[in-house]
């Protein structure tokens, strides 16, 4: 009969420590959500960004330099043909200027496309450099995650140890 208060205290201690354990589990889940999960999302976004960069390169980094070189060669042959005509041979007005302008425009287009290609390669180099640095983020992510596991495991162990200590004096009916 005088064991009832001790039994009640033991049950209250168990309830208190279960509530503490629940709070620790909720805190741990929140830490997962705000910490590791967000870190994994950032890493995924980085990987998706690299994949998208290569997709964009494949789609937009094309040039038509070989076609322009053939067209320049063809127009230069036509110009040579115009220059080698006899002086009294009929020539359409503006034909020579038109061919010269086409050659200049095509040559400038080749220069511009080369510059664009260099720019694209430099951008890819910068993106890959950033990506390589982000790979170290994975190490930090795992370190932080394991430290969190240790922290919450120790807090839970302390909670259960304290409960065990409090339940030592609980009557067993022996």
Can you describe what's shown?
With 174 residues, this protein is mainly α. The protein contains 3 helices and no strands. It has helices spanning 4-60, 65-83, 95-167. Helices cover 86% and strands 0% of the residues. The model has no long low-confidence stretch (mean pLDDT 91).
Describe the secondary-structure layout.
Blueprint: H1 4-60, H2 65-83, H3 95-167
Helix pairs in contact: 1-3, 2-3
Task: Quickly describe the structure.
The chain has helices at 4-60, 65-83, 95-167. It has 174 residues and is mainly alpha-helical.
Query: Describe the biggest sheet?
Result: none
- The fraction of residues in strands falls at under 5%
Helix content: over 70%
| Total DSSP helices | 3
Let me know the number of strands.
0
| Cα separation of the termini | 14 Å
Q: In terms of structural class, how would the helical and strand content be classed? A: mainly alpha
Shape: rod-shaped
Indicate the mean pLDDT.
91
Low-confidence stretches: none
Key structural traits:
single chain; 174 residues; mainly alpha; 3 helices
């Amino acid at each position: 009969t005088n064991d009832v208060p001790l039994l009640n205290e033991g049950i209250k201690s168990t309830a208190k420590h279960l509530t503490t354990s629940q709070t620790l589990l909720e805190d741990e889940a929140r830490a997962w959500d705000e910490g590791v999960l967000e870190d994994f999302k950032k890493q995924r976004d980085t990987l998706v960004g690299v994949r998208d960069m290569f997709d964009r390169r494949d789609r937009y980094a094309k040039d038509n330099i070989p076609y322009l070189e053939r067209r320049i060669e063809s127009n230069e042959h036509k110009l040579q043909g115009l220059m080698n005509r006899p002086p009294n041979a009929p020539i359409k007005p503006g034909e020579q200027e038109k061919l010269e302008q086409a050659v200049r425009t095509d040559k400038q287009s080749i220069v511009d496309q080369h510059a664009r290609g260099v720019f694209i390669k430099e951008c890819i180099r910068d993106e890959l450099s950033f990506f390589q640095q982000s790979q170290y983020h994975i190490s930090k992510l795992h370190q932080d995650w394991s430290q969190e596991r240790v922290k919450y495991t120790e807090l839970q162990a302390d909670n259960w140890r304290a409960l065990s200590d409090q339940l030592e004096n609980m009557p067993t009916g022996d």
